[in-house]
Amino acid sequence: MLLPVLASAELYKWVDEKGKVHYSDVAPKKNTKPIDLPPLPVTKSQPNAQQILKKKSARAVTGAAAYKTFKITSPTTDQVFGVDQPDINVSIQLVPLLQRRFKHKLVILLDGTPVSEGPAMSTTLTGLARGTHQLTALIKDEQGRTVATVLPISFHVKRPHR
After folding, report:
1. Tell me: the pLDDT tens digits for 43-62?
2. pTM of the model
3. Residue 154 contacts residue 132 (beta carbons within 8 Å)
4. Contact assessment for residue 95 and residue 124, using Cβ atoms and an 8 Å cutoff
5. In terms of pLDDT, which residue wins out, 61 or 148?
């Protein structure tokens, strides 16, 4: 990595006899002075979507109830299904159970679209197109605010081998 070395090196600018401007980290003449450059900007990297969801998941709930476990147990990450498998069962593990006294409801999303909404901890997906799909789940309160989120998982539907 040369970046730290270059950041601390002196740079020189000069114009040759033909009027061409040159820059170098080596002084061409004894009387050449280094040029002053402004400090390099430093930008703090932004968290990616996975880090944001992980942070939200670790917090679990921002309301009165506390969910100790909230995860997708089926399908598993990167599980592969054939298009000849008509049904894919989705199961959610939630401890403690859904807090109905706070009017919480579970929303299961496939590729960002709700496929199940209510108290059920499972659903069945049918007729999925081949390709990679993303599955996630949320717990929402009665105002529709998300109070808990699981990390999304991806699974794959493949065409049958011929």
Report:
1. 666 666 566 555 554 444 44
2. 0.58
3. yes
4. no
5. 148
> Residue 90: what pLDDT?
95
DSSP 8-state symbol, 28: S
Measured between alpha carbons, how far is 20 from 103 in angstroms, rounded to an integer? 74
Rounded to whole angstroms, the Cα distance separating 154 from 50 reads 13
Q: Above 80 in pLDDT, residue 6?
A: no
3-state secondary structure at position 142: coil
Output DSSP code: residue 32. Answer: -
In this predicted structure, which of 25-34, 41-50, 93-102 has the lowest mean pLDDT? 41-50
3-class SS letters over 52-113: HHHHHHHHCCCCCCCCCEEEEEECCCCCEEECCCCEEEEEEEEECCCCHHHCCEEEEEECCE
Strand order in the sheet with 122-126: 69-74, 87-95, 122-126
* Amino acid at site 77: T
106 vs 93: CA distance, rounded Å: 11
Write the DSSP symbol of residue 148: E
**Between 7 and 27, the higher pLDDT residue:** 27
Count of residues making up the chain: 162
Instruction: Quote the CA–CA distance of 53 and 152 in Å, as a whole number.
Output: 8
